[in-house]
C-alpha cells in the first residue's frame, strides 16, 4: 500500500507544482498522443507475449524481507511491489498512464485502488493461511493468461489507430511493425550469456532501426503539390472538347507501385509546376474497389489490365501517351514542356 501511496504522492506533486491538469478527451484529439499510445500498447503486448522481459536487478531480487516489526513489514511490502513489476507491468503501465492524465484527486484514488487491489490478496492469505491450499497451482495456464492479455492490448491499439487521421494510420502501422521487429531483436537475439560486444552491436542496431523508421514513417506526410480532380468522365470529356491537355493517374490504395509513382513522379516540384503552368487537368482515378467508376473505365474504356498507369491526352494527338513504368518523370517532363503555355 505504501508503495502505491508513494506513487500517488509523487503524481500529486508533479501535477500541482510542475504541470497542469490534463483532460483525457483532449489528449485523444492529438494525433501524436494517440500514435504514442498505440506504440506503447504494441510494446506492452510484446512484453505479455514474452518477446522481452523487464527484469528486477539481482541486488533487489536477492534480498528477502526478513525484517521484524513495522519496518520489516514495510520493507517486505515494497519488495513485493517491486518484484511483481515484471508480471504486472504490461497491464499496470496503461492504468498508470490513464490515471496520470486525470485530475490529481481522481488519479490518487485510482492509484490507491490499484494498491488496495494488490494488497488485499496478501492480507487475506496471511490472515487465513488455510486458503493457500485452495489456490490454483502455478502452471502453464498463467503464461497463457498473460499472453491472452497481450491480444487484448493489441485490440485496444487497433481501436486507437481508428482514431488517427487517415493520412497517419498506415505510417503508424508500418512503424509499429518495425518497432516490434526491433523489440524482438532486443529481447531474443541476445541473452545474459551473450558476449558484451555482440550484445552492444545487436541492440545498437535495433535502436538505429527504430530511429530510422521513426524518421521515415512518423512525420506528417507532405501535402499534395498537385490539385487532383476525382475521376469524372463528364469533366474529362469537357476538357478534351475545349482542347485542354488532361493527365489521368490510375492508382489504388493497396498498390505499392502506385505509391512509388506518387513519390518519384508527382511529388516533383518541376512536374507539379509544369502541370499548373500548362493548365493541365490532373485527374486522380481511384481503382481501389472493383465497382469504382475509374476501375470500370480502366478495363472497359482504356483497355488496361491494372495499375499503375498514367494516361496523358495531348491536344491534336491521335492517341494518348501511356506510362506503365515507375520511372517516367523525365519523359513526362519533356512532353509537358512541349505543351503551349496558357
From TrEMBL:
<dbReference type="GO" id="GO:0015035">
    <property type="term" value="F:protein-disulfide reductase activity"/>
</dbReference>
<feature type="transmembrane region" description="Helical">
    <location>
        <begin position="31"/>
        <end position="56"/>
    </location>
</feature>
<feature type="transmembrane region" description="Helical">
    <location>
        <begin position="200"/>
        <end position="218"/>
    </location>
</feature>
<dbReference type="Pfam" id="PF02683">
    <property type="entry name" value="DsbD_TM"/>
</dbReference>
<dbReference type="GO" id="GO:0016020">
    <property type="term" value="C:membrane"/>
</dbReference>
<feature type="transmembrane region" description="Helical">
    <location>
        <begin position="171"/>
        <end position="188"/>
    </location>
</feature>
<feature type="domain" description="Cytochrome C biogenesis protein transmembrane">
    <location>
        <begin position="26"/>
        <end position="162"/>
    </location>
</feature>
<feature type="transmembrane region" description="Helical">
    <location>
        <begin position="104"/>
        <end position="132"/>
    </location>
</feature>
<dbReference type="Pfam" id="PF13899">
    <property type="entry name" value="Thioredoxin_7"/>
</dbReference>
<dbReference type="InterPro" id="IPR003834">
    <property type="entry name" value="Cyt_c_assmbl_TM_dom"/>
</dbReference>
<keyword id="KW-0472">Membrane</keyword>
<protein>
    <recommendedName>
        <fullName>Cytochrome C biogenesis protein transmembrane domain-containing protein</fullName>
    </recommendedName>
</protein>
<dbReference type="GO" id="GO:0045454">
    <property type="term" value="P:cell redox homeostasis"/>
</dbReference>
<dbReference type="GO" id="GO:0017004">
    <property type="term" value="P:cytochrome complex assembly"/>
</dbReference>
<keyword id="KW-1133">Transmembrane helix</keyword>
<dbReference type="InterPro" id="IPR017937">
    <property type="entry name" value="Thioredoxin_CS"/>
</dbReference>
<feature type="transmembrane region" description="Helical">
    <location>
        <begin position="77"/>
        <end position="98"/>
    </location>
</feature>
<keyword id="KW-0812">Transmembrane</keyword>
<dbReference type="InterPro" id="IPR036249">
    <property type="entry name" value="Thioredoxin-like_sf"/>
</dbReference>
<feature type="transmembrane region" description="Helical">
    <location>
        <begin position="144"/>
        <end position="165"/>
    </location>
</feature>
Amino acid at each position: 500500500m505504501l508503495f502505491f501511496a508513494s506513487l500517488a504522492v509523487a503524481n500529486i506533486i508533479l501535477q500541482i507544482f510542475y504541470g497542469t491538469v490534463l483532460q483525457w478527451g483532449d489528449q485523444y484529439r492529438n494525433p501524436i498522443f494517440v500514435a504514442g499510445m498505440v506504440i506503447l500498447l504494441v510494446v506492452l503486448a510484446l512484453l505479455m507475449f514474452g518477446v522481452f522481459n523487464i527484469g528486477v536487478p539481482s541486488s533487489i531480487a536477492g534480498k528477502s524481507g526478513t525484517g521484524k516489526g513495522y519496518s520489516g513489514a514495510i520493507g517486505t511490502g515494497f519488495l513485493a511491489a517491486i518484484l511483481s513489476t515484471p508480471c504486472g507491468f504490461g497491464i499496470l503501465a496503461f492504468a498508470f498512464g490513464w490515471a496520470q492524465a486525470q485530475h490529481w484527486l481522481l488519479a490518487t484514488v485510482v492509484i490507491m485502488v490499484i494498491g488496495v487491489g494488490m494488497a488485499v490478496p496478501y492480507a487475506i492469505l496471511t490472515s487465513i493461511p488455510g486458503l493457500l491450499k485452495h489456490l490454483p497451482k502455478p502452471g502453464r495456464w498463467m503464461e497463457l493468461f498473460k499472453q491472452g492479455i497481450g491480444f487484448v492490448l493489441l485490440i485496444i491499439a487497433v481501436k486507437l489507430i481508428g482514431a488517427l487521421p487517415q493520412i497517419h494510420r498506415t505510417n503508424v502501422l508500418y512503424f509499429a511493425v518495425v518497432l516490434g521487429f526491433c523489440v524482438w531483436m532486443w529481447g531474443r537475439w541476445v541473452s545474459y550469456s551473450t558476449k558484451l560486444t555482440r550484445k552492444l552491436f545487436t541492440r545498437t542496431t535495433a535502436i538505429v532501426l527504430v530511429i530510422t523508421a521513426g524518421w521515415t514513417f512518423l512525420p506528417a506526410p507532405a501535402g499534395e503539390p498537385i490539385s487532383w480532380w476525382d475521376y469524372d468522365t463528364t469533366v474529362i470529356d469537357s476538357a478534351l472538347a475545349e482542347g485542354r491537355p488532361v493527365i489521368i493517374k490510375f492508382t489504388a490504395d493497396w498498390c505499392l507501385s502506385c505509391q512509388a509513382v506518387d513519390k518519384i513522379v508527382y511529388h516533383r516540384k518541376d512536374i507539379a509546376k509544369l502541370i499548373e503552368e500548362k493548365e493541365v487537368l490532373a485527374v486522380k482515378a481511384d481503382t481501389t474497389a472493383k465497382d469504382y467508376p475509374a476501375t470500370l473505365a480502366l478495363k472497359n474504356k482504356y483497355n488496361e489490365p491494372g495499375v499503375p498507369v498514367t494516361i496523358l491526352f495531348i491536344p491534336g494527338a491521335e492517341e494518348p501517351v501511356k506510362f506503365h513504368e515507375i520511372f517516367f518523370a523525365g519523359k513526362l517532363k519533356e512532353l509537358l514542356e512541349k505543351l503551349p503555355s496558357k
